[in-house]
Specification:
globular, DUF2958 domain-containing protein, DUF2958, 28% helix, alpha+beta, two-stranded antiparallel ribbon, 124 residues, 5-stranded antiparallel beta sheet
Length: 124
């Protein structure tokens, strides 16, 4: 699978880079179908074919890093699989990556707090 398409490359060139950290916009998501690793790309350099973004699912810690698209594309996994690009990925911010429950839009934080308070009352 080609991880960076011409349309995606164009979108990276249009994106603003001067945003607050928690509002960093991720334009692409790559994942390991045989593991936990997920690469969220916020920047792409077409000359070096390198992305910068947030990587999750590693053994040591989630972190910001540069990653090479050709290396991801060349990575061979079990069962003949390879690193995949999420085809229907909608652009999201770092805040949404770190708080995935908010992505559904159905999450009512006030209701969550009330339910938690009620549960604590019952336990007493």
């Amino acid at each position: 699978m080609k991880l960076i398409t011409p349309e995606l490359e164009r979108r990276f060139s249009e994106a603003k880079e001067d945003t607050a950290l928690d509002q960093t916009l991720f334009l692409a998501k790559f994942l390991n179908p045989c593991g936990n690793e997920i690469w969220y790309a916020s920047e792409y350099d077409a000359k070096t074919k390198t992305c910068y973004g947030y990587v999750t699912g590693r053994e040591y810690a989630d972190d910001w890093e540069f990653f090479s698209i050709p290396k991801l594309e060349a990575r061979k996994l079990h069962f003949g699989l390879s690193i995949q690009r999420e085809l229907y990925f909608e652009e999201i911010t770092l805040e949404q990556v770190l708080n995935p429950i908010c992505l559904s839009g159905d999450f009512d934080f006030e209701k969550f707090k009330r339910n938690r308070e009620q549960s604590e009352e019952l336990e007493r």
